[in-house]
Each structure stands twice: as structure tokens, then as C-alpha cells.
Amino acid sequence: MDLNTISSQLETVDEEDVEKLLRQFIRENSHTFTFDPKEESLRIRLCQSVLSVLRRQVKPSCQKTCLETLRILSRDKRVLAPVATREGMLILGGMASLKAGGDGDDNRDISREDTLSEEEERVVVEALKCLCNVVYNSPAAQQVSVDVQLVDGLCATLRTARTWHHEVGLFTLRLLFLVSALRPDVRGVLRRELHAVTLLTEVLEHTLDVSWVGPYESARPDPQALPMPAEDNERTMEALKALFNLTLSDTGGEEDEHHFRLIAAILRHLLMLKTETEEKTEEAHSHAINLLNNLPVSCLDVLIDVPVQGGLEIYGGKNMDAVQMLIDFMEKRMDKQGSNYKEGLTPVLSLLTEGSRHHREIRRYIKAQVLPPLKDVKNRPEIGTTTRNKLVRLMTHVDMGVKQTAAEFLFVLCKESVDNLLKYTGYGNAAGLLVARGLLAGGRGETQYSEDEDSDTEEYKSAKPFINPITGHVEEPMPNPIEEMTEEQKEYEAQKLVNMFDKLSRQNVIRPMGVRPDGTLAPLEETLCDQPEDSGSDSD
Known about the structure:
Blueprint: H1 3-10, H2 15-29, H3 40-55, H4 60-73, H5 86-95, H6 118-137, H7 139-147, H8 150-158, H9 166-182, H10 187-193, H11 196-207, E1 212-214, E2 217-218, H12 230-246, H13 254-271, H14 278-294, H15 321-335, H16 341-344, H17 346-358, H18 360-370, H19 387-394, H20 400-413, H21 418-425, H22 427-437, H23 458-463, E3 467-468, E4 473-474, H24 487-506, E5 513-515, E6 521-523, H25 524-529
């Protein structure tokens, strides 16, 4: 049916005919995501007509049909002007059972969910879906949602999390995520005034069925238990995404420290859980890792300090189950063909790097897994299937972020010792990191580490004199190309090489560089001028 006809008739027909007209539109457009630009004005008019119907006291079935229509229309960001108004947002907020601030009598607040009929609950869900679409697609609606204090209503709904049904919870959390992502200015209000971090933490606690056995220690999940239901996993991921937005900036108070440690403990519990599919488990763990990266690094001890469950004596009694899960996750992401390493791998590498930098037991455990004592040095460090080989390959990745993160991870595992790093990677693979850190001349990074472990195997000690420091492995003997040359031929070839370098340098194709005393690169002429005077030299 023609859109113009539908809009015209909506304003005059009764509820039953409204439903018939709109159901036909829904049937024809339920799978439509790209709309005809020529009908833009007609769709705007239809939005206005549907809102006019919702202003009336119509029954829930008619409300639901109107909201389904609006949800389809809201996929087109160019027709949202009628909805992205104070009145439009308050109508949707009222239908979604959100008590928006400053709404006066216009907010038709539906009673709490436990008193809703099934039909009324479908209205709430459809209204929340509409709000998600409208807020996502319309900057004007985002501003109005701030003006009418929509987040107040969302946080009020979070307080009823123990009684809400799946879709109400899912789209409430998704809407909170969208508002906090698209309007950074409301994050402070959500944290300080509405205590959204606490509310979301309680949502996670309830959804994941966390049972506490210590201050920041949850009971070990039953290995025989069924996987986490898909619906619980969906709500968990939406809550984690919202918490990620709210923890992007750290206020650093004592109350925050407690909440962050509590979140870390819940995330440890989540890392130990499995969902109905391996793909969904990995997705949930990915969101947990993103959130762990936002927490102060001092809170990461919660991952390994679980006295009731116990740990490994070799690592000071610390429990490394969660760290092993992170290592397994890292290896899965490295093995994924065609994956986006920047988004999929760098978060877990960053988390393991900071955990290793600040927690000795975590570093020792990861190093034993990733950089075990060297024995076979016949192959290049980047060739092979071990975790070390894969990480060394990433040190020369085309993406600068991936390359730097992988190099930094290995550097920290080597206690920021240049000599140790070169032993495992070779100078060629490590050159980028050393240039960035100003460590081309060797030495250590700034972090202080304990003086422990790092003993070489007998195999490595015997092969060390024959290792090429650039490639990091023992090379097969190569024939000497100048062995049979006369001295005159050698001098001629040397001069020829000098002339070639000089020509390339004058044409600015290459630029000879040298290393300053502080380990940074600089043009060769500058480094020659920077040579320290050797006052005690006995040369003549």
C-alpha cells in the first residue's frame, strides 16, 4: 500500500484499522534496511502519524504495532526529526517504562515489570528497541535524551534487574551502552550521581550467579555445570560494554578502588565460564579483557590471589588459572586467519604486558609459557609454530600498533633487558622497539625488576658463539666472496661501494645514520660530533 495512503488513513480510522494498515507496512518492510530516497518525505509523515496515534490512549496491541513501525522507520537516519524531539522521546520513554527526568505529565510511565501483562511487556521491549535505533542514528535524539535525563530512568530500571525478563534487560543495557558511548559527557553523571558502576556490577553478579567465598574471591564454577545460557551471556556482554564506557576515565577514589577490585573478581569468574558455543565464549572473554584493560593495574592481583581455591607453590601460592585462560585466548587470536589483530589481539597483549610489568608472579608464569629456555637455535626466531615464533613474527607486522604491542610484551617478559630480548628475537626483529625506546646501544628499560631466574641451557651456551645476532640463529657457513680476490680488487670493490653509498646519500635516497651515546638514532654527521672525549686514552 502507498505510504501516503497509510499516513492519511491513520489520522481518521479506529484502532483496529490502524493495526491492519501498519501490519501490512511491517510485513512488506520487516527486512528492509535501505530505503528509497524519493519517499523520504512520505516516511517522515508516517513517523508523525504514528506518533499521533501513540499520543492517544490506545490499547497495548495497537501500541506494539505502532512501535514496530517506528522501529523499521528508525533504521533510516534521515526521517527521525519527528521522533528526535522532547515530546517524541518522552513518548518512547514512557512506553519503555523509563521515568525520564523533567517529563511532567507527558511521561506515561507503565507500572513495574512484575505487574505487566505479556502484551504490555512486548510494548516495553519494542519501545526500548526504538530508542536504541533512534539514539544510535540521531545526534539530535542523543541531545534530547540528555535533556530529559533518560539515563535516570535507565538506572532506575537497573535496580529491578533481579526481576526483569531477558529482552527488557538486554535492550535496557544496550541503550545505556549507546548513550554512554555516544555522549561522553554523561559518563560522569552516571558514575558519580547515579552510581551506575555499582548497579552494573550488581547486574553482572546476579546474571553470572557469583557466589562469594572471600572479599574478592568467588566460588570456583562447577566443572560439571551446564554452559552459561545464551540469554545470560547476551546481557552479560551488554553490561560489560556499558561498564567499559564508564571506566574509561579513573577518578581514583577509595570507593572506586573497591568497585574496580570487585569487577576484576567478577571478570575472573567470567573467564572461568563457558557458554553454549566456543565462539560466544570467546566473545564474552574478549569483552572481559577490554574491561580489565580499563582497571588500575594494581587490581590485577585479584586475578591470581584466591586463597580459598589455592595456587601453585612455585609462584608464591598464586593461582594462575585466569592467566592461563588469557594466554589461551591470546594464542587463539594469533591463530585466527584473516582476523583484525589490532582489535582482536592487542587488548589481550596489552593486558598481559601490564600484568607482567607490575606483578612478578604473572610475568614468571607467562615467560615460562611463552619464552621457555632456548635449546634449538638453528632456526630463525620468527620461523616455527611456537607462541614465541608467532609473537616474533608480529614484531614486523605492517600495523604499527600490533608491532609495538607484541614487541613491548616480549620486552617486558625479558625484564626490559635488551640483551635478553635479542637472545629470543634477534636484532633485526627488535630494531623497531629499540629505536622507539632509545636503546640501540643496549641497556635496560626504566621498570625495576627482581634479580631472579634467566639461566641459559647448556645447548644455548654451546651454540651462542655461532649465533648471528641480527637474525638470532646459527647460520650455515657461507662462502667468502672476497676470499680469492687480490688486495687491489678488494680496494676497488670497497671504493665502488663507497661511491654508490655517496651517490644515494646525495640524492636523498638513503640517509646514513648513527647511534648517539643515549641509544637514539641521529644523522651520521651528528653522531660523529657527539662522540665522548676519551681523556684517558693511550692511543697515539
